Fold this protein.
Amino acid sequence: MVDIAEVLYVDGNVIIAEFPEEMELTDETFAQVNERFEELASQPAVDTHISNLQMEASLNDDVFTRAKEAAEVGKEFGITDWVIVSEGIKKMALKSQVGDIPGVDISLVDTKAEAMDTVAN
């Protein structure tokens, strides 16, 4: 089982979500992730979110729904920049679903290092 506190954490002004290969995409996991996200999003310095999609499971409608919920919650706390990290097609699929939320700017990168460079600039 994945420790949600290790999956979602704050680094400076960024909420980083590290979704590991073995992460299961269940309702229980989604609920824990969204609860932790909201807890971290309330920190005043946080204005950016990085999602590092490393899980092997395919993205499905539940993932897209939960991602949209997270983006809406993030907007409520002033988090409008979202960087999606994935070497494969997952980042494009997620952007196609979440990218239409007004006020949320999404960048796509291949590595976490690129994501950190993006938010540092």
Summary: The longest helix spans residues 61-76. The mean pLDDT is 86.
